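Memo to structure team: turn this sequence into structure tokens by end of day. - J.P.
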Amino acid sequence: MACLLQYDRRQLIKLPSLVGLDEAGRGCLAGPVSAGAVWLDGSFFENRTRCKIARAANDSKKLSPAAREELHAVLCEWGKQGVARFAQATADVLEIDAYNILGATRLAMSRCLQLLAKEHALPDGRSPFLAVTSGADTPLFVDDASAWPGVLVDGLPLKPFAWRHTALVGGDGRSLCIALASILAKVRRDHLMAELDQRFPQYGFAVHKGYATTAHIAAIREHGPCTEHRPLFLRAILTKSPAVDAQVEFAFAN
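Reply from structure team:
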């Protein structure tokens, strides 16, 4: 969508580049939470062909599976060409249980930035991202903050989080780099759930991707949870009667 490109272009007037962050799978009953990060700079938007392709990007939940896969393949090709940089990371079920889903989501997003920072460190070895605090827990100030990439996160501000960032509610439908990050996170997670389906075929992970559908809840009641189910998410469901299944079923992307 053209508006997504326009938002990022406006930000790039004052910033050298943008990194979009988003997640997938936060509301699932099973499997990891997945995060994606996509890093674009001004030169990306100088190519008309890339911009034309990028106009098809949107919030991953609003795209068909085929459209997501196609854009994911394009993003991987842009990565090979060096015109876009990206990273994907997850937090597993044990981490979700230990830190709750919000903490695990922050962890997965932090891992994405850590991967990008490791791969694209500055010449002096520093991270290319502006940290919130130094090791002594003292705010870091720089003479020209515009020399650092802007980190855009879909949703509300991440607290705590190691890097300065701007939260953008509905960002996956407003910013191109966040939309691409949402596609990356969603496609990679869908692939992981398809792999889990091979290990645990009785639950139908390849179909519902771990969300709380009626069929998924029925399978959990019949077979019991597996090691990829999230204990914190199952407690209420396992005590409910089938009569209230409809009340706990979540809408999920195709």
